């Protein structure tokens, strides 16, 4: 007899330890012999170890030997078993009645593909808002049933924690990690193949090594002296030298005070990893004390302090010819006067009105182009001491077609700013009023093309409000911070008691009364 059919499942795919293997064999006579041999991959001896041959025929329809199960149905037989780790199996099926030509058979070798799997590689660490992602590659391993063992090592305390997964990614909550610790991890894959250590990582911010401060002259007069101009102060934050430890992305909290103002002003550099910040229009002859704190999603770093004293200088006028940008306005004004003269001369002449209208329209276009340089032309908020409950009014004017407000608020003692929805106006829309969270905005456009918006609100107790106004493209913007001064009020002091003699006339008699006055300063 002959073998007419022989097939094993997964014969064209990788078979790994633990997989179920099934082989089907059919002979022409119905008598079937199974010959099974095995070796252990990697062992010093690669000689085949045979199990007893199984003869299936009409009197023996099933059998089991050493975990191999045999069943018979008509002229076919099925062999099934589970592959062991590091095992190499030789399977031979032949017709049981063919005692002369024993070479008339079919065979196949099944081996544990996982034995040749390589150690996991490319271990990476990614920081998310509340958790850390550990990810790796398991190339050369086609065993889908692989269970990876992840060992997390705290390098400072040598504490080990273990995680098991059948994926190549694992998530760890930040609450499970120590903020001040430095961690590495390894991954053990199939057949105990272990990766190298990952790059070290930590949840701690990268502290600031140094801060450089530069000043830039402006053309904006200061409130304390209109003939002298304010300065822009730029801080360049220099983190500590990069090391082999990976840190989360971070931002910076910047607070400053001055020698004449005890109220701290706080600003958030909220763009992650941005290390440059500029404060506009600071006073001259003033010493500013800056405190910079690195912050990430998991913790806050060590603060660093830096001071600078600004110098006084005369305003440097900008624009063509050093006229502070007034040249275009004078040209536009001269053209406007010319238009008036033309109107005065030609309006008395019949039929010339059309020419006058065209010329006047041309002059208005010139006037608008002379102003439309995309700048904030006016920005001012309620001046002087401001306390809780006071009504605040801010006025912003721009010569572009659009204007936007950006409002943030926080409790004075808090670090983080809370931003409300930004409010934008455009002269081509009909919207001219908005209301958000107690902040009222109005908007109007003048015939000269200037767009003006007014913001009003009542200041809450212990609140700081950061107000920024920008043109539609944010290419020019101005800002200020309003703070409840009452928060810093001190308790009453110098309580005194004073007595004085008072004479009263009662029924014609003079009475002397001592009065105690309690005076509170």
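^ Assign residues to that structure.
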């Amino acid at each position: 007899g002959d073998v007419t059919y022989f097939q094993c499942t997964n014969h064209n795919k990788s078979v790994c330890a633990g997989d179920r293997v099934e082989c089907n064999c059919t002979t022409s006579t119905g008598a079937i012999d199974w010959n099974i041999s095995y070796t252990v991959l990697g062992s010093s001896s690669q000689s085949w170890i045979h199990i007893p041959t199984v003869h299936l025929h009409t009197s023996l329809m099933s059998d089991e030997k050493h975990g191999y199960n045999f069943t018979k149905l008509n002229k076919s037989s099925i062999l099934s078993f589970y592959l062991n780790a590091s095992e190499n199996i030789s399977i031979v099926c032949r017709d049981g009645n063919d005692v002369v030509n024993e070479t008339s058979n079919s065979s196949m070798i099944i081996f544990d593909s996982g034995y040749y799997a390589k150690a996991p590689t490319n271990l990476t660490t990614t920081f998310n808002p509340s958790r850390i992602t550990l990810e790796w590659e398991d190339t050369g391993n086609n065993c889908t049933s692989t269970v990876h063992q992840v060992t997390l090592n705290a390098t400072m305390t040598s504490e080990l924690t273990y995680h098991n997964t059948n994926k190549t990614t694992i998530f760890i909550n930040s609450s499970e990690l120590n903020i001040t610790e430095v961690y590495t991890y390894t991954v053990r894959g199939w057949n105990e193949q272990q990766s190298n250590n990952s790059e070290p990582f930590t949840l701690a911010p990268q502290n600031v090594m140094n801060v450089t401060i530069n000043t830039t002259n402006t053309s904006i007069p200061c409130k304390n002296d209109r003939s002298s101009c304010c300065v822009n102060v730029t801080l360049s934050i220099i983190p500590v030298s990069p090391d082999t430890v990976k840190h989360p992305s971070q931002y910076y909290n910047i607070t400053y005070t001055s020698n004449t103002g005890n109220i701290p002003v706080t600003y958030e550099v909220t763009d992650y990893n941005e290390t440059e910040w500029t404060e506009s229009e600071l006073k001259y002859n003033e010493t500013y004390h800056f405190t910079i704190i690195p912050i990430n999603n998991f913790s806050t770093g060590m603060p660093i302090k830096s001071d600078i004293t600004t110098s006084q200088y005369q305003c440097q006028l900008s624009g063509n010819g050093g006229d502070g940008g007034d040249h275009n306005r004078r040209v536009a004004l001269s053209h406007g006067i010319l238009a008036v003269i033309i109107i005065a001369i030609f309006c008395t002449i019949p039929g010339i009105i059309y020419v006058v209208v065209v010329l006047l329209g041309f002059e208005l276009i010139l006037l608008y182009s002379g102003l439309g340089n995309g700048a904030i032309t006016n920005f001012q908020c309620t001046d002087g001491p401001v306390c809780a409950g006071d009504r605040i009014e801010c006025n912003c004017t721009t010569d572009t077609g659009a204007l936007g407000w950006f409002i943030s608020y926080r409790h004075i003692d808090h670090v983080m700013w809370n931003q409300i929805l930004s409010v934008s106006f455009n002269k081509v829309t009909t919207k001219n009023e908005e209301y958000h969270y107690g902040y009222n905005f109005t908007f109007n456009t003048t015939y000269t093309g200037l767009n003006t918006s007014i913001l009003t609100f009542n200041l809450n107790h212990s609140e700081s409000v950061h107000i920024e106004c920008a043109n539609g493209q944010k290419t020019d913007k101005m800002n200020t911070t309003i703070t409840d001064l009452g928060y810093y009020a001190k308790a009453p002091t110098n309580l005194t008691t004073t007595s004085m003699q008072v004479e009263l006339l009662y029924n014609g008699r003079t009475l002397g009364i001592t009065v105690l006055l309690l005076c509170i300063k």
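The domain at 3-115 is CATH 2.60.40.1930 (Immunoglobulin-like).
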